[in-house]
Design goal:
alpha/beta, globular, 2-enoyl-CoA Hydratase, Chain A, domain 1, 8-stranded mixed beta sheet, 2 domains
């Protein structure tokens, strides 16, 4: 388990419980279970207390936790007959974006998302989930294909933002993001987006301009990272805590504003503490949203989606 900064007291307690059990395994006849169980209870109580009322900045830390389930984990667990499709038919295949044809509960769909990787090798290969223009052009290609064949689209968002490198800018990063966002708005099939970790900037919007936007309890969705915002506004990236609070980037804030349609509750300690349980809840949410949209016609979907984004934020402002 990787522990966040604010979880250090919890790490000490859980570490002591594990040390006791390891000692008992090495020494026959030593009974430490009652003492270890007491430490387990203390750790569970502390975990609930720590996660009871997280600040926006701590939610950012949890959303970025390396042990959270990522796009590939959800696809492997929730979809069958997954057939990956590669390339943008123009430049290259972007490994930060994965997607293809699959079945969800026996329904043919197109599923795609940002993949961050799970270790040093795969994180470098996946560019830490930061897509380049070819990734967004691949996404648009898959959505257009889904539209042609009448397949619902499911996107799994987890990115710090689009890759800001020189080569990406030379190949038309802004245009590719805009085209992907435009494609989201014009396809006539159900489009469901789940933010499973970070939803950063236009890199997330290009996947998440959907009929239904679902967020995990400790995920975030924002026009800019707290560090980037702090650097611009205060010329000091260390003011990221103030920026996180001001950005209203938590799932709870965005639900109040009408940006997010549903918040999926995470287990105590975040999705990384119960990966299988979290994935199951995401699957249930996808199933519910597909059921809501399955009888909607093409014109109704496009019109409703456009109206949703034209009205964005009005619910929160009215309050």
């Amino acid at each position: 388990m990787n522990y966040l900064d604010f979880e250090k007291p919890l790490a000490e307690i859980e570490g002591k419980a594990e040390e006791l059990r390891a000692l008992a395994r090495e020494s026959e006849g030593m009974d430490v279970e009652s003492e270890a169980a007491g430490l387990d209870k203390k750790a569970a109580d502390m975990l609930r207390t720590l996660y009871k009322d997280l600040t926006p900045w701590r939610k950012c830390q949890v959303a970025r936790h390396p042990d959270r389930p990522h796009c590939k984990d959800y696809i492997d667990a929730l979809f069958t007959e997954y057939t990956p499709l590669a390339g943008d038919r123009a430049f290259a295949d972007d490994h930060a974006v994965m997607g293809g044809l699959a079945r969800f509960e026996d329904t043919p769909v197109v599923v795609m998302g940002h993949e961050k990787g799970h270790d040093t090798k795969t994180r470098i290969e996946r560019n830490f989930g930061m897509a380049q223009p070819e990734g967004y052009r691949k996404a648009a290609r898959l959505m257009n294909m889904a539209d042609r064949f009448g397949l619902p689209v499911i996107t799994l968002v987890d990115t710090p933002g689009a890759y800001p490198g020189k080569g990406a800018e030379e190949r038309g990063q802004a245009e590719a993001i805009a085209q992907s966002t435009r494609t989201c708005l014009k396809i006539g099939v159900p489009l469901i987006s789940i933010i499973v970790g970070e939803g950063g900037s236009g890199g997330a919007v290009a996947f998440a301009t959907a009929d239904r936007l679902v967020m995990l309890e400790h995920s975030i969705y924002s026009v800019i990272s707290p560090e980037g915002c702090a650097s611009i506004l205060w010329k000091d990236a260390e003011k990221m805590r103030e920026a996180a609070a001001a950005l209203r980037l938590t799932a709870q804030d965005l639900h109040k504003l009408g940006v997010c349609d549903m918040v999926i509750k995470e287990p105590p300690g975040g999705a990384q503490r119960d990966r299988d349980g979290t994935i199951t809840k995401v699957g249930a949410a996808i199933s519910s949203m597909l059921a809501q949209l399955k009888d909607s016609g093409r014109d109704a979907l496009i019109k409703g989606r456009r109206r949703k984004y034209l009205d964005m934020g009005s619910r929160g402002l009215a309050k």
